[in-house]
Amino acid sequence: MINKLSNAQIAWRAAQDIEDGVYVNLGIGFPELVARFQPAGREAVFHTENGVLGFGAAPPSGAEHWDLINAGKKAITLKPGAAFFHHADSFAMVRGGHLDVAILGAYQVAENGDLANWSTGPNDVPAVGGAMDLVHGAKRVAVVTEHVTKHGQPKLVRRCSMPLTGVACVNRIYTSLAVIDIESSRFVLREKLPAVSLDELQSVTAAELKIDGTVVDLTVPGDVS
Amino acid sequence: MDKTKFNLAEAVVDIPDGATVMIGGFGGAGAPIELIHSLLERFRATGHPKHLTLVNNNAGNGHVGLGALIECGTVKRLICSFPRSVDSRAFSQKYRAKEIELELVPQGTFAERIRAGGAGIPAFYTPTALGTDLARNKPVAEFDGRMYLQERWLKADFALIKAEVGDEHGNLTYRMAGRNFNPLMAMAAQCTVAQVRRIVPAGRIDPETVVTPGIFVTRVVEVSDPQQEEQLNRAGAIF
């Protein structure tokens, strides 16, 4: 049994690629964890599509302002330099190419960069939120995800079988086993857990993993859990 | 010029059957709970207005506000981006029973369609949703070598919105992330009704800080201690 990364560890790895001074949108749920691991000395400004730039952690219980929430409807606080704006301006920031990074969750990612993350099929009540806007607006679109589903099925595939959120939009995938870039419609393996062999990784990935240069060991500090 | 001579009941009394009604808010933030409840009370007392088309980003949470309005059966059709919440049973039960129609719109497109409605722009092009199920039957066009999807404006008969301070002219300011869709919807409706925490005389809002100029606002109602959906739900409230 491979000792795969936890969600917090995947989020830590994704946070290492966020440069100083960039504007970042984190999807609801798992991607929100990325904000906890900003490297020292770097300041990213977090955008939430419901109209806040520069928000911080959740307030203590009882100190919430329920008009001050994030896209996941959770209470937030403000950092110095924060700003409020309406929804059309918020998505002008997204669509207009002003947002540097969007990090989202995924049901499936295809080797050409297609992303499926909004609908599990016709039996579900469909809900899309801002995901379809974010994937075509941010300069860099990254995904954080388990490498396989809870039933062991690959989430990195040749073509998505689930309804698409966006076409050819993902640049980088941080999984519980590896870091993979999408270049020229191919998965390019950049990092993998040292305990996982290439064959093992390929066996749980439903499209070919290209090697282009050195594959770096994916390591996370022990105190990140 | 005095747009503040209305109470909550008078503010919604002329919304007709079959109307398209935009309701501001994102989840509970900026949601005009008292205006929604006033509309719901009118429906319970008179059976009208019925067959409403509702425009809101969400589909309610729990059994207050939008959730209660959907639950009572007055909503025929919902246009939104995210009809799920901690407790969106009111909507999901009606949706599964095919008692309510849903038009799902990506959130940025939803916002821009409303803005376009208020700005007199009948259609626009966006990269959002291109190549997805939500692009079905929509025209596409190439601009500068990239494909875009055509989306149409969204307008309403009424908008029910929430703001922080309003004056006799209808000028409005907002509170934190309670702003969200409220300024856009104010522009996109024939009749915009704003509930505000405080009404002040003209001249008391610094013109530099006005977010929604009064030209977009028809009626202003003071609700000095507005309820928040989140707190009502935590208290287990049912309206």
What would you say this structure looks like, in words?
Chain B: InterPro entries: 3-oxoacid_CoA-transf_A, CoA_trans_fam_I, CoA_transf_BS, NagB/RpiA_transferase-like. Chain B: It holds the Pfam family CoA_trans. The complex is a heterodimer of chains A (225) and B (239). Chain A has 225 residues and is α/β, with parallel strands linked by helices. Chain A has a single domain, classed as 3-Layer(aba) Sandwich (Glutaconate Coenzyme A-transferase). Chain A has helices at residues 7-15, 87-95, 131-134, 198-203, and strands spanning 23-26, 45-48, 52-56, 77-84, 101-104, 108-110, 115-116, 140-145, 156-157, 172-175, 178-183, 186-192, 209-217. A 10-stranded mixed beta sheet of chain A has the order 4-3-2-1-5-8-10-11-12-13. A 3-stranded mixed beta sheet of chain A has the order 7-6-9, with no helix packed on it. The longest helix of chain A is centred in the first third of the chain and has 9 residues, at 7-15. Chain A is globular, with a radius of gyration of 17 Å. The mean pLDDT of chain A is 96. In chain B, helix 5 (107-119) packs across helix 6 (182-188). By secondary structure, chain B is an alpha/beta fold. Chain B is globular. Chain B has one domain (8-123, 155-231): Glutaconate Coenzyme A-transferase, CATH 3.40.1080. The interface between A and B is large, with 38 and 55 residues.
